[in-house]
Amino acid sequence: MAKIYTDNEVSLDPLKGKRIAVVGYGIQGRAQALNLRDSGLDVIVGARKGSSYDLAKREGFDVFPIGEAVSRADVILYLLPDMVQPEVWGEVERNLRDGSTLDFAHGFTIHYGLIRPKETVDIVMVAPKAPGAAVREEFLRGRGVPALVAVHRDATGEAKARALALAKGIGATRAGVIETTFKEETETDLIGEQLVLVGGLMELITKGWETLVEMGYQPEVAYFEALNEAKLIMDLIWRYGMKGMLERVSVTARYGGLTVGNKVIDEEVKRKMRTYAERVVSGEFTKEWLKFYKEGNIEELMKRIGEHKIEETGRKIREIIFREP
């Protein structure tokens, strides 16, 4: 059974008197920096000159070049994108002080050995299970988003306490923080993105829309059925669970969903899911991704979905649904 930490079990004391440097002021970095500051902690930002540097300054932070921010801090949140982290690592490593705590929001670069911090620093992870915008929005509402917490190396004897304090500082303990490992978080995150959250959902929705249109139904009607209502159903599942969702849709929808869904998403689909999940565990996916990152063009891959007819239909629908009143 997973260990879940809640707000009243965790203290901010391990971070009192410590300076925290948030390296990277993107969507996740900005949210965590603001939340930690609002929690009463001493936060600075490390960023390269540019839009994020300027934004952090405007929002009241002391902002330094990355290396200098690291040298000034006791706890460093390394929140640059996965593939940028190794490129900047030399600048960070040269300035890491013994006894520092290095925190990640995703275990990718540590788990796959893309960066190797020295033995004298803690390596921990606080991984919010939501985009940065939600981390900030929920905090401002007095709530939080769940997070995973892990310790890869405890050089100081305080690594876990500091990681949990960071989780509390960003508001995650309000929702619950689950203890995990870098391996489990990294592999489940990649597998979930590929099989369900990004790849699986996009293909399920797209194939459903194509089936309806190919049967002669209007693209706009198919869009509402295959995509627009998917969001409403997911909201019900998120709030009430699968059985709770079924209790809140029509009896016809219940029967159809329970008797047809598992014939479409069947054991053969599950077998394929396992095949691609094993590529993550073996490291094969990471090798492929590293090679593509150096040689490929992600925009070329995105063209396929960007040029799909469902997007053409969706743009028209969204202009109507989300137009300003």
Automatic annotation (TrEMBL):
Alphabetized Gene3D superfamilies for the sequence: 6.10.240.10, NAD(P)-binding Rossmann-like Domain
One Pfam family recorded for the sequence: KARI_C
Co-factor remark: Binds 2 magnesium ions per subunit.
Name of the featured protein: Ketol-acid reductoisomerase (NADP(+))
Domain KARI N-terminal Rossmann: 2-180
Binding positions for NADP(+) per the UniProt entry: 25-28, 48, 52, 132
Species per Swiss-Prot/TrEMBL record: Korarchaeum cryptofilum (strain OPF8)
Entry-linked PROSITE patterns: KARI_C (PS51851), KARI_N (PS51850)
Physiological role: Involved in the biosynthesis of branched-chain amino acids (BCAA). Catalyzes an alkyl-migration followed by a ketol-acid reduction of (S)-2-acetolactate (S2AL) to yield (R)-2,3-dihydroxy-isovalerate. In the isomerase reaction, S2AL is rearranged via a Mg-dependent methyl migration to produce 3-hydroxy-3-methyl-2-ketobutyrate (HMKB). In the reductase reaction, this 2-ketoacid undergoes a metal-dependent reduction by NADPH or NADH to yield (R)-2,3-dihydroxy-isovalerate.
